[in-house]
Amino acid sequence: MVATGDVLAGRGSPRRTDDGYVGVAADADWAREVRRLADERGAVLLAHNYQLPEIQDIADHTGDSLALSRIAAESDAGTIVFCGVHFMAESAKILSPDKTVLIPDERAGCSLADSITAAQLREWKAQHPDAVVVSYVNTTAEVKAETDICCTSSNAVDVVDSIPADREVLFCPDQFLGAHVKRETGRENLHIWAGECHVHAGINGPELAERAAASPDADLFIHPECGCATSALYLAGEGTLPKDKVKILSTGGMLDAARETGATSVLVATEVGMLHQLRRAAPEIDFRAVNDRASCRYMKMITPAALLRCLREGADEVHVPADIAERARGSVERMIAIGKPGGGE
Ligand code: SF4
């Protein structure tokens, strides 16, 4: 239903396609209408760092997945519009069970979250009955409900270090983050699920080495989900890349590092949407993508048309069954109790 006073009424409606909703330009009228509808619904608009620039710019808050969920929980707003992928909106619902959580397009999934199901995790646990399960926050609510402690890319090492050394650990779903944690903790009893994000896995070591050689003065900001993270540490260790320039960082950590680095140029290895926030945080620095094709099609399904439709229709609403939400919340709260929870993807 189109709300009264809609300045876009009669100028074409959002049209559903397989790649997302289309048909609405992100112009000044759109921006005014989005803000008006958000006020009318009493909604807070949250945008992940990988969203389209126009979605990031219209949001009340931009950040990584966990930071946004915590902002949502603390906000007075009764409705949360989560511009990100589905597991992120689920996390907001888990932490704010009494609020209405909307995602502009519920088809916005995640190849990493899809790489392990709750049934697969239960089967893995049955093979290691005494193990502690640590899951990266890029997982579905059902997988979080089967998890002992969640982790983000900034605190994964601390979370695993908090587990007694003689207990086996099952780490899922990201194999690159798992390899990083295994290397940092030196832990032999850490088993790693072979999942990956298709976008981050596509940013590879040879590409990184080539870009770094062409820009020897640049800092390297690398997300630990990247296929290049292991190679970057190896190349730094053997002197091919300067050790002090290689920084393995969550998306939140990248923003902090951007404000603090003395470098004039930075190569960034993560989803390309991140460049928008980095350039806003430190406009004097030349930020360039290691792989400028590293764009997540799920994140980009949150289009201007999808956001407009979401606010007009109150859809798509995210539901998490109460028993799953309660168990999933336990795994997130155990992580928060360990500390340094900031910086999911
Ligand atoms: S970039 Fe990868 S991990 Fe992030 S939402 Fe897209 S598919 Fe998932």
Automatic annotation (TrEMBL):
Gene3D superfamilies: NadA-like (3.40.50.10800). Binds 1 [4Fe-4S] cluster per subunit. Its EC number is 2.5.1.72. One of its GO terms (cellular component) is cytosol. It is an enzyme of class 2 (transferase). GO terms for biological process: 'de novo' NAD+ biosynthetic process from L-aspartate. GO terms for molecular function: 4 iron, 4 sulfur cluster binding; metal ion binding; quinolinate synthetase A activity. Iminosuccinate binds at residues 48, 65, 136-138, 153, 223-225, 251. Keywords: 4Fe-4S, Cytoplasm, Iron, Iron-sulfur, Metal-binding, Pyridine nucleotide biosynthesis, Transferase. Its main location: cytoplasm. HAMAP family: NadA_type2 (MF_00568). Belongs to the quinolinate synthase family. Type 2 subfamily. This is Quinolinate synthase. It comes from Saccharopolyspora erythraea (strain ATCC 11635 / DSM 40517 / JCM 4748 / NBRC 13426 / NCIMB 8594 / NRRL 2338). The gene is nadA.
